[in-house]
């Protein structure tokens, strides 16, 4: 049988970067194929080439036995290839049906009007055929991430896709939603569809895929049978060396309370409560983790704590000072460091160089400012220290933030925030998009601060991260704390259930440690 | 070393310079602005020739390729740029023809009347340009500099008329009144700018709309106030009584009747430096710039965004108000309704300057020349002076498309230029 | 039936209330006042509709004023040349469309800053129209034949609303254009693409529709619509006057104000336009009262500010003003 | 041939020229004409509003054209778009050496202030100012009693709205109501308003006068809407003092089938499209002032430092009946106007210059 996709010697070169280097890839029809690799290994670039977003510098693309050249995504779509990006390509203000049919709307009246009824019916039919539950009339902005993803899948199916590419589809899902997604994979392959998905999670690749191709530094370093391989083998292929998969934490010896949140209620822009009556404390010398599926109020909670959003009700105390009504600047002055979730929007000013970014948040600090005059020399020295300590690439303080890769921006932000000599660090997804080496380094720094008696509040959608370095773990679901658990005691399944809103069974206790 | 070797080396050197300059944004900015000016002149030339065939005249102003044209582009641009400087060039100075007479025309003084007009327009444009640039840097689209200028102009005129009887005459009076007038203008402009600031910060009202509306309101309100309460008796136009001499900015070097004061220009240039310093070296400026580039990032960095919006519009308004005070205290000597559109011109100045306060100091004179030169064109050629407005628009248009020039620049650097032949290069 | 799409209901409500207030002030009970309001609305409404298409697709066209100016002049000139008002009208629209082509190329091919390029379009037109007028007519002012009114027998006799059936062609065209734009934006595939192109161009691109083409089409459409507005302005009178800010006199900027106020919805925008035009009509009536006319003339502007402050923010499309290159990550 | 037709023909010729490449200079020799040493040179700085306003500036231009023809002078003119440009144009012409202008004519009250600076700066240059007064030995001033002329047309409007008038294209209503539309609200235009109101009141205190200001001399659209509003409120006759904006008033009169009164020049001729609706015009003989001043210069009789005020008495302002409608106005009305004119000339009636004093 001819393979669904066959890539032959694909090379993609960007100015100064060789993203893909002579990559071969064969995907059989009706199978699930995982593309595994670290960030920056060239997985997404390869798939963008297959999808016609990039033209390859050299190499051949063969679809279903026919050689193709794609100049634009439409060419790939015409060849039966569909792609679901990490950032969903959905128009928030439109409904599911409108998004699914975008660009290929069914028409009536000689093409003068969109046939809305037809569009809705088409989506309903598709849902039934592939067993996907989505209401066609709901606006995207009102849907959970999982359903949005299903909408994306519907979009590609609607266009008659045979080969579905998914870029890190599980990154934002709960364990339960991941399960559901994997069963959707099965339904799709049963009907003859072929699936390629990008991931950097070993377990997932092994669980969901029939075959796994590992990319490293833009090269294909091996294709293995998912049944036959081991985690260790894959990890070694990915990183090129043996990897320690566990983070070691030192002894847990918490001190006084540094952050106390009491009955906090926060509303979103529409005036709806997205955080309801949340209470918890973070002590000096401890890492308090918050787990939960994205969009369950974590970001609003963090914004309220860090002073970026005014809470509706409740009390926040930092040390022994109430800071509920303090603004952002006063909180910074009180020793609250914050690694924000969205580095492009908040963490760095993209058009500033690194020196100017080094000052962000310290523009009133006496260390850098005399009587309103900024001491750029001292700021530059400070920036150079961060760059060196956190191995920010390129090590050029005059480079603009936008010239840095996401991982390096993140390292810079972490370096700047942790250098504040804080009493509390509020870290949101601190290692998102950062390579394994730097992730280790950032974790080490957070643990060092913990050892030095700083309180750390950690939010992450990476379960292994929050479980790995937290001392206590609060689980959020729909704006409430479902439970606070011992991360070492709880199993992944139990955690998944909590994240899905199941009330905790009383038995989850210290006895059940693995 | 052979000639072709040398040529290749010079070209390589040149290309390296170009390559390096393509990286430094200030130089690039300058190159692009110059190229935009050049291209605008080129398009303008075509326009002049075409319109010279569209109209009818008895004698041709110029003949090119055996075709007569009613307007001569050479004369037009000569009048536009040199006329605005009071014709400095000596007609006998023709270096291209190997004649090196003194470059400046005999009897030409840099302190001539045309130059005074150019510089006094420049002075006001520096203020309005700074006003717009500052707001833009803070991410606030202040279209209301015009209204703020009117508010400042009116307030300083009325304020000085109230104060004049109180202070003594002579130098002492001037020392007291001139700064007072400027301050009143700045405060009034600032307060008027604060209105859209407050509306934006606390009512989320789009500042583009509110400032456009407030421009109309300012003009009408000034008309009401002056015509109903401060009308100069016996005058046929809506204006206040003239300011006493001690309330006007004393002219330096230039003839007092030219209504231009070097002192005012010096103050304007000083403000350019001050605003530059403010933006680059102070916490306030840093916060303004941060909010302008990335509001969410500014919020993250502890910038009080609402306060920054209000502060930037207030400051921007104050600069506009100062421009108005200058207009009243230097150019008019009283307040009259029908204030020229300095505020809108400030937008073009700021755009050409890339919103850089020091850039404003270079862009303002260009538009000063254009404004002053358009008068010379009207009186010295038969060309309708509105052409100058077209040129101004074209300059702005071309400045808006740096990518176009980069493309050309890149091509010039990358491609081996098709060398025509060596012989062309000698003098 | 679905609710009116993408329309802040609060905004619409506010505008409707204020349009009514404006209406009452101007004596909407009066057919003449309504006629006057409709006539004053024409150039503003067309320019605003054009602005909606451009900005909803992600290209802010701040140069609407320029499109009005150039089409106003060319309309008169071509009418003189051909002796036919409709040909003149078409030529005016064509001139404005050519400006839109230049604007689109500059923005979409050379990635120009849309605001600056839009201002440039305005400045060029502001100079070019009186320049050409002077070259051709030796005066910044020019006259030609103009449109004749079309009166629909019977219907025009209806009290008040009879104004809708007794007007010059531009007024009818305006009513058609408002409904047509509303229909196109909400019920056709093109309208949906325009929306997607302004909100999430990547979504549209990956769905296989060229963002560039949609944006080109939208900008050209904005040129066409604004051109109709400008040609209507001058040809309703058979006059072009080019001194100062020309006869357009800021109407293109008011157009931006009204579509922001109408939250990019053609119907809401039309209501905002009539609010503004109604207040203009009303202020003429109010001048005869005790307030000095200079103060009365500020009423429309101050009202807009108050409405805006009361109704609150208008949400611009997410990608408006941003350049989009296919294949960009 | 009236100006508009002339202008249109010009436009047609020129585009034909473009298409057929026959435009451009008619004398294709390309040589600049040598300056004729004998002829006097005159420069004119027009008022904002520009040529083609069918009113003030055009009226001034007819004086210039006449001088050109009869005195064979050379002329140059400019049309500033902004008041701040006046002083620059004035001094530009004053400075000019080729040609060295014998006279610089400054049209419009807004030029008074700039000229009071410019004139002393160039004591050798001769200036003439219309609608203002600058006390300098090198300036000849001409001012007009617009209120007197306006009084006359106010009287006319008052009489006709009372007696009623019906002509082919237009008619009055039963109501007795007249209106005034001004451009920008300034003291000069208020003189027109004051005179008009006084003239109406002189006819009958009971006649209603509505007055509106459009806020611009260029906004034809708004002028038309304001006039239509007045007509729909029952106004029979509108007198405008609004420059270009006034064209809108005539259009409104045409649409509403009512009457209007023109200003500055005989607008039944300059705006002949609307002659069926223009009862009369309050002509301000700016052209005569222009011609006389130029003639004075040519004949070396320039009288610097003088201020000539031209009222009804000097025939500087005058009511000129419309070329079409003039014959429809009853002789009785005309004779009443004659008698009120005599009273003004003799000082028996004093006409106010501020509308609030009416």
Encode the helix/strand succession of chain B as letters. Answer: HHEEEHEEHHHHHHHHHHHH
CATH architecture of the largest domain in chain A: 3-Layer(aba) Sandwich
The largest pleated sheet of chain B is described as: 2 strands, antiparallel
**Name of the level-1 CATH class of the largest domain in chain A:** Alpha Beta
Q: Largest sheet of chain A at a glance?
A: 6 strands, mixed
Describe this structure in words.
With 514 residues, chain A is α/β, with parallel strands linked by helices. Chain A has 17 helices and 24 strands. In chain B, the strands form 2 sheets. A two-stranded antiparallel sheet of chain B has the order 2-3. A two-stranded antiparallel sheet of chain B has the order 4-5. Mean pLDDT of chain B is 84; it is low at 18-23 and 416-427. In chain B, helix 9 (283-293) crosses helix 11. Chain C is mainly alpha-helical. In chain C, helix 11 (266-286) runs antiparallel to helix 13. Chain D: Pfam families: Bmp (PF02608).
Compact overview of the structure:
The complex is a heterotetramer of chains A (514), B (427), C (329) and D (358). With 514 residues, chain A is α/β, with parallel strands linked by helices. Chain A is 32% helix and 26% strand.
Relevant terms:
heterotetramer; A: 514 residues; alpha/beta; Rossmann fold; 6-stranded mixed sheet; 24 strands; 32% helix; disordered C terminus; D: 358 residues; 6-stranded parallel sheet; 11 helices
Write the layout of secondary structure elements.
The complex is a heterotetramer of chains A (514), B (427), C (329) and D (358).
Chain A: E1 5-14, E2 17-27, E3 32-36, H1 43-50, E4 58-63, E5 66-68, H2 73-78, E6 81-84, H3 96-101, E7 107-108, E8 113-114, H4 116-130, H5 145-158, E9 163-167, H6 175-190, E10 194-199, H7 202-208, E11 211-216, E12 219-225, H8 231-239, E13 257-267, E14 273-283, E15 287-291, H9 298-306, E16 313-318, E17 321-322, H10 328-333, E18 336-339, H11 343-347, H12 354-358, E19 369-370, E20 373-374, H13 376-389, H14 406-418, E21 424-428, H15 436-451, E22 455-459, H16 463-469, E23 472-477, E24 480-485, H17 492-499
Parallel strand pairs in A: 3-10, 3-11, 6-9, 9-10, 15-22, 15-23, 18-21, 21-22
Antiparallel strand pairs in A: 1-2, 1-4, 4-5, 7-8, 11-12, 13-14, 13-16, 16-17, 19-20, 23-24
Chain C: H1 9-25, H2 31-56, H3 64-82, H4 85-108, H5 114-137, E1 141-143, E2 150-151, E3 166-167, H6 169-187, H7 189-199, H8 201-206, H9 211-237, E4 239-241, H10 251-261, H11 266-286, H12 293-296, H13 299-311
Antiparallel strand pairs in C: 1-4, 2-3
Helix pairs in contact in C: 1-11, 2-3, 2-6, 2-7, 2-9, 2-10, 2-11, 3-4, 3-5, 3-9, 3-10, 4-5, 4-9, 6-7, 7-9, 10-11, 11-13
Chain D: H1 3-20, E1 24-27, E2 41-45, H2 56-71, E3 74-78, H3 86-95, E4 103-107, H4 112-121, E5 127-130, E6 139-144, H5 146-163, E7 177-182, H6 187-203, E8 208-213, H7 220-232, E9 237-241, H8 245-256, E10 259-264, H9 267-270, E11 278-284, H10 286-298, E12 307-310, E13 317-321, H11 331-346
Helix pairs in contact in D: 2-10, 3-4, 5-6, 5-11, 7-8
